[in-house]
Amino acid sequence: MLSMFQTKPDLIVHSKDPLNAEPPLAHLRENFITPQKFFYVRSHGNIPKLDPARHRLSVTGMVTTPLDLSMDELRTRFSKRQVTAVLQCAGNRRADMQQVKPVSGDPWAPGAIGNAEWGGVAFADVLRAAGADETRTLHVAFAALDDIDIEGEQFRFGASLPMAKALSSDVLLAFEMNGDALLPEHGFPLRVITPGYAGVRSPKWLASISVQDMPSDNHIQQRDYRLVPPHITKDTVDWSKGMTINDMPLNSAICEPAAHATLKAGKTMARGYAIATERRVVRVDVSINDGRNWSQAELEPDSDAPWSWVFWQAELDLPAGEHELAVRAWDSAGQTQPVRPDDTWNFKGYLSAAWHRVPVTVS
Amino acid sequence: MLSMFQTKPDLIVHSKDPLNAEPPLAHLRENFITPQKFFYVRSHGNIPKLDPARHRLSVTGMVTTPLDLSMDELRTRFSKRQVTAVLQCAGNRRADMQQVKPVSGDPWAPGAIGNAEWGGVAFADVLRAAGADETRTLHVAFAALDDIDIEGEQFRFGASLPMAKALSSDVLLAFEMNGDALLPEHGFPLRVITPGYAGVRSPKWLASISVQDMPSDNHIQQRDYRLVPPHITKDTVDWSKGMTINDMPLNSAICEPAAHATLKAGKTMARGYAIATERRVVRVDVSINDGRNWSQAELEPDSDAPWSWVFWQAELDLPAGEHELAVRAWDSAGQTQPVRPDDTWNFKGYLSAAWHRVPVTVS
Fold this sequence. Notes:
2 copies of one chain form a homodimer. Chain A is mainly β. Chain A has 2 domains: 2-244, Alpha-Beta Complex (Sulfite Oxidase, Chain A, domain 2), CATH 3.90.420; 251-362, Immunoglobulin-like (Sandwich). Helix content of chain A is 10%, strand content 39%. Chain A is built from 7 helices and 24 strands. Chain A has helices at residues 2-7, 25-28, 71-77, 94-98, 123-129, 163-166, 219-222; strands at 12-16, 19-22, 41-42, 56-61, 67-70, 80-88, 113-122, 139-150, 153-162, 172-177, 180-181, 191-193, 206-212, 226-227, 243-244, 251-256, 261-263, 266-275, 281-287, 295-296, 298-299, 310-318, 321-331, 356-362. Chain A binds chain B through residues 227, 229-231, 243, 245-250, 277-279, 282-283, 285, 293-294, 296, 330, 332-336, 338-339, 343-344, 350-351, 353, and chain B through 227, 229-231, 243, 245-250, 277-279, 282-283, 285, 293-294, 296, 330, 332-336, 338-339, 343-344, 350-351, 353.
């Protein structure tokens, strides 16, 4: 794998410490299953170096049988489960909102997303082994081992899931990604995988789980990763009134051609992805004239993997001149994406999901 | 009930034969549970007059034990189930799309929707009693008893559901609405209730059910109630390429004040509904200046009825002049409604769900 890393374009690094990086889009579009080395990395703190032989997972709180498991015990005591699922950052495509008005956070292009085959055990099996109270209004809080420093506040990463989601069959405690052990930056030796939800609900370097009657009290859960109205600023925000970001919205992106590419007049193939999380992508439209006309993209055959993205391609006939390509997806409830980033702008730049636009020069 | 009907404003009748009618919006907003007499009526043909003592339901096709049940047998053989759920026409709010460009169909305002307590039996229980093949890619086709004439084609109503939806616990074969027998116009003596889906997937006057490997071949399923791209017309449509309308999109409406109302300057309470079908409504915004500023509406306490609508209200402070009020809802995946009806325009006027705008004069 190392040689592949060296011969392919590197990730685009937004920040080295914490490490935040995403693949170039053309590269992202090459593989329906994203290789680990080219999967976006979103860190809030350091990347812990953990010894799998000594790593333990505890399950406590509103349970009848608290657990304290080694990695070997986790693997042998529970059945192996595999789920193919997209993970994406709540800030994926933030750069588009940044162009409207400044937002805080890294300027992610549409590459803060990837699709992988996750291997591990069903989280529901572990919760049941612990005799967790399965009341659907409860919460499952995670504590991880990465050390974070946000504006002088020092803490370890924590976040939570509603019990109803935690019990759903595709949520995993994962130790494999595409058949290999997780790389350190993806949470080695153990992470949560919560299909459909923002990446922040899939904590890496997982150390403990608590079943409780309140969401996690961690900074990450309480004072970040919430959607607030457009008039709210960093100075006026009342985090308790924001919507906790769990399910991700319908989204799509043009991966090829690249923004500001120079193309020859005539036929060009555009390629990209679309994602509808718990819904299905039913149509992808591409326009070369700001949405006055749309042509329907061809969708790659459904992979029977409900949490995957959809790859699309569309043959365009481009006359000479300056053009802006645009893509929008439609979901199985007949919803489509916002026209402009300012239709859903918020000061944190979350859930940026307007038509993705790519300016090109055709000669 | 009859006297109530006579002393309240009548339904707004778009067509008498077939009967298509909706309540005035202020009236719709009075009751969280919509009375039968004031529930919108969408008919494709006649309203059959059926004798409940002679009415029978058959279940055939890919089943091990075909059923042929009287209404009494249906009631006594299966447990009673109650579900509170919104039904809405796929063409609700079509009038807004009509203002962009002509569309076919009745010009529904936002009143082609209602919320009721449905009583009946779980459809899954009946399918299991028949030994239906539960393969999730199969279809359950319904045949009803209303006679339809569309452009010279005469047929009886038929439609289908994917097996996976048919088996979900809240889909009913219903004989009661708000504790009473169904009124004739709502499907007496038996109808389907498919929460979250367009009303067309909740056939009235239900006579038979077939488990099969293809969707219904009825006109209603194959050549209507599909979402097509904006450039498609009645003359160019290839129905096989349209998206079958099942799940309904996020929507909201201002019920009070009424369009073109004259109001006094100062505080005014706006009221309306919002609906996110299988998701949750997390926020409702109201603007008096075309979306430059938004105020957050107050949502009535969650009723623990996941398929219900949400009632909202917002106190507005209106200066003298001409204003256009607008509302938009947000769902639990961070999606919101399109800004303009032409963002999702289609020649059938389906799934009209842009910001709902109400012009008012303030003096």
